[in-house]
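User: Predict the complex with inosinic acid.
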Amino acid sequence: MDFRTINPTDLWVGVFYVKKINNIGRKMSVVIVVGAQWGDEGKGKVVDLLSGESDIVARYQGGANAGHTINLKGEQFIFHHIPSGILSPNTVCVIGNGVVIDPYGLMEEIELLNKKGIDVTGRLYISHKAHLIMPYHKLLDKVLEEDQGDGKIGTTLRGIGPAYADKYSRIGIRIVDLLDRDSFREKLRKNIKEKNRLLKTIYNAEELDEDKIINEYVEFDKKIDEFVKDTSVFLNSAIKEGKNLLLEGAQGTLLDIDYGTYPFVTSSNPISGGACTGLGIGPTKITSVIGVMKAYTTRVGRGPFPTEFIGEFADNFRELGSEYGSTTGRPRRCGWFDAVIANYSIRVNGIDGIAITKLDVLDTLDEIKICTCYQYNNKNIIHFPSDPKILQKCEPIYETHPGWKQLTKNVRKFEDLPEKAKKYLSRISELTETKIKIVGVGSERNESIRC
Ligand code: IMP
Ligand code: MG
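Assistant: Here is the predicted structure with inosinic acid placed in the model:
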């Protein structure tokens, strides 16, 4: 071939084409898995299912308030910090800068995995920019909640709110601060002094022991050293190499500090945008957003919940779905699937594929309802309201679907589902104008349908 005859534009197109082919060959993807309701949607199971196909799973916000439950070969794992991908032996897990880390909890999780024969060395990296939960954050979470009386949020008491508050007040302590012991001691001493003043004079609570805390955190620093990395550099290099990444959020859209049912929310951004800020990955790198939704709705803690069940049915349903918090053990509030919420989540997250979980929980019901819109002051509302007082007064408008009254646990293909279950799912897809990509029919990894 005579290269002199090639037009430079053709050459550029040719190179671009080869690059594209290479990427397709490597199936490069950066997928965000986001909770589309009030958390506990089963993100852990979805991430665990997809992590076999992923090189890296990275967690982008929250802390030990999260509880991701995975059942594998009859054994149950609950993770609070470590991404659920750790159970896939070839997957590297990352805890991003957006996460607030409780050293005690994190070390416990690492030790538990080691005990079960799962070595995390070389498979777990922690951002040096992540903030630390300090003992005073947990104490403040408790006294602040107690002080609120009826207005309390019902937090998990893991120190999440106070830790993020310190981050935004620019007095937080980050992993990177541990590197310089002298300045770390000085910074911590200053913080403890200030928090002790607050705890003693305003809340009449016990003061903290400065030296004890400093010694414990220095000890943690030694243990954590091998895991600390500039994870934004690591993740972006992996993207350049054409690797597959899963970005895992904790909690859910309606607990988001900006888009949730404020003030009954957590103090971070579980929405997909949080993945970019919480990991140092730019939005142009994201290839897809999977929204995880239960086939019904649940919520832990206080705050409005339009489709909530009441009375005996609520209690029976909770048992049917084993709906108890994985972090606090609190009974979860349960209700019907809410398409207003689903559509809101799809909008603020840019969800392009849905994972419906726990379909099997509905197997025995005679009829199943879907909320299609709300009624407020005799008007139909299709956009999720921002004011919790209005939301509290919204009346859900339901359509009723007949139950399929058949076990779905053993179904592995969408076409093998009972006709009425298919109709129920198709209706959710129609109302949300979004494709359902995964359906969960049991707690085990293999109890799933890929659509
Ligand atoms: P915090 O995140 O502990 O401050 O709690 C704030 C609110 O978020 C409370 O209503 C908690 O019950 C709720 N929450 C926090 N983490 C989770 C979670 O992982 N799943 C479900 N609810 C959560
Ligand atoms: Mg949970």
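Residues 39-40, 65-67, 153-156, 158, 160-161, 250-251, 255, 264, 266-267, 300-301 surround inosinic acid (ligand 1) (CB under 6 Å).
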